[in-house]
Design a protein that fits this description.
It is a single chain. By secondary structure, this protein is α+β, with helices and mostly antiparallel strands. It is 37% helix and 15% strand. The strands form 3 sheets. It has a 5-stranded mixed beta sheet, covered by helices on one side. It has a 4-stranded antiparallel beta sheet with strand order 2-1-3-4. It has a two-stranded parallel ribbon with strand order 5-6.
Length: 292
């Protein structure tokens, strides 16, 4: 079956048109005797009326009016590149994944742009690929800014959590001392062995470790040695009982054992004889009561 190339009414060339199709188009009035046609690979353009094989069909067809619709050929459907869509989706999801998907989205966006460009029109989605690439790149560029904004807040939150844990530690130790006193005729534990005396009354030995202290010390607190074995009813409830220290396990003494620099945002955590726990600024330390 012969193939022809024709020039449609829109001025475009349409190759690989069979003689059978031309006969149908003549009957439908979509082409006429003046339609420009080239047979096969020949370089010569002729009018359709110059081809003998179509003469009979043209004679049996009333010439279409000048305003007849030109021959049009529907363009092949263009598929959207899936990588372009994935790039845009991953770029947007970067806000929820700390930039991990944005990094992948940037790579996929670049790959999609290359594939669309080399597809000679068979693939679409260039705009989507550009959007995905831009969104991913912008988010990745913003990561350092976001990190600079979030790190101080995270550090402050961590320090606050450590302070709360330290307060809870001293509350547990203070409660354990009251339990000891209740089992020993209302007397405070011996200062020299106070950790050993109460360790069975706390959840675990981790209570003796301040979360803000990075040393390997077994205990980061000390006991007021002036409460050694005293009867609880004879001690002023405002007297210091437990305080932060670097003395180690069973450390006992007075203000000389207290840490010199606050571990928690400028505050010192102190437990008193009545079981209460307070966070004190350095300027308040000189108001502490050490004598029962």
């Amino acid at each position: 079956m012969d193939n022809y190339t024709i020039i449609g009414g829109d001025g475009k060339e349409y190759p690989w048109v069979t003689s059978e199709n031309l006969l149908k188009w003549i009957a439908q009035g979509r082409v006429n005797a003046q339609t420009r046609v080239k047979a096969g690979d020949s370089g010569e353009w002729k009018t359709l009326s110059e081809y003998p094989e179509f003469e009979s069909a043209l004679q049996n067809r009333v010439p279409p009016p000048v305003s007849a619709s030109p021959v049009t050929v529907a363009p092949a459907a263009t598929k959207t590149n899936k990588l372009a869509i994935a790039s845009l989706v991953l770029g947007v999801l970067g806000t929820l994944t700390c930039g991990l998907t944005a990094l992948v989205g940037l790579v996929l966006g670049i790959v999609a742009l290359v594939k669309v460009k080399n597809s000679q029109g068979r693939l679409g989605g260039q705009g989507i690929a550009i959007a995905g690439t831009v969104v991913s790149a912008v988010f990745l560029l913003m990561l350092p800014v976001l990190a600079a904004m979030l790190l101080p807040a995270l550090a402050a939150a961590k320090e606050k959590a450590q302070t709360i844990n330290c307060v809870n530690n001293e509350k547990q130790m203070a409660l354990a001392i009251r339990i000891y006193a209740g089992d020993n005729n209302d007397h405070f534990p011996p200062a020299a062995t106070w950790c050993d005396a109460i360790k069975t009354s706390v959840v675990n030995e981790q209570v003796f470790k301040c979360p803000a202290d990075e040393s390997n010390s077994r205990c980061d607190y000390a006991f007021n040695s002036k409460l050694d074995g005293m009867e609880t009813s004879k001690v002023d409830p405002r007297t210091v009982m437990i305080f932060e220290s670097y003395g180690g396990w069973n450390a006992a003494g007075g203000s000389e054992l207290m840490i010199g620099k606050a571990r928690h945002s400028g505050v010192f955590v102190v437990a008193f004889a009545d079981g209460s726990v307070q966070q004190l600024r350095e300027s308040q330390l000189n108001t502490l009561r050490w004598d029962p």
